Amino acid sequence: MPKEIDVLVLGGAGVDTIVHVPELPLPYADSYMIDQGIRTRAGQTGDFVALGLTALGLRTHHLDFLGDDPEGDLVRALHDQHGIALTAVPQPLGTKRAVNLVGPDGRRLSLYDTSRAHPADRFPEDTLRLLAGASRHAHVSLTQPCADALPVLRETGVTLSTDLHDWDGENPYHASFAYAADIVFLSAAALTDPEATMRRIADRGRARIVVATAGAAGARLLADGELTHVPAAVPPAPVVDSNGAGDAFAAAFLYGRLGGEPPLRCAEFGAKAGAYACTIPATESAAATRDALH
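Structure for Adenosine kinase, as requested:
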């Protein structure tokens, strides 16, 4: 039977408050004047992956917990605006939120509010199985309760990807995602030996493809045991913010993969989409299109 959904995105829905600061790290001071304003907008990792996939023409469905609050309304409005299907499980503790400090060079520091979830939170299993069964692929965010969804997803037979972000290679919470996914994305920022970590993921888990991104230094691609360096793409405009670049990379890579492209071509798509994302101000929501990639 044909699948109704190209990619099911689990978790990572929320809002960010963006603060442009004069430098990072930010030296202590009693106060700072923020000339560019302090703005709250919808969009965390799952939202941005879903946005990137949709901009590339993939049928995308996002599943996560949302509160009945103004922040949840912002997330719902973002999905409505871009035509992204959303299944929102009620979260009495409220919608996830974070504060992003963005430096002049586009680097960011994120402060996550971890009070918007409960350890006992679980996706309704019937809903999870129904959506996974209708999907060609599922991309799983690190946010709780996605870890508990991994065994159910594997039972449905859907292929999985995940983004470990700045994993240090040791944290066991991230490891459960790393070893369950067929495609693993991560940042090399906190890794002393990225290649060793990538090969460990492939050796101990299911992944046939592991990608470690390194910003302007490009990315490492491990596919079927072969390691390749993927150069960074030239941004089409001045770099203003790196927020969402990794999510854009993952979305474009999955677009290529689901279209039958070889891993290197998928990584080149990811590099282009990531570079484009760095030219978009953090207060805006936009993603690379098919025309931009091709």
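The CA atoms of residues 121 and 145 lie 6 Å apart.
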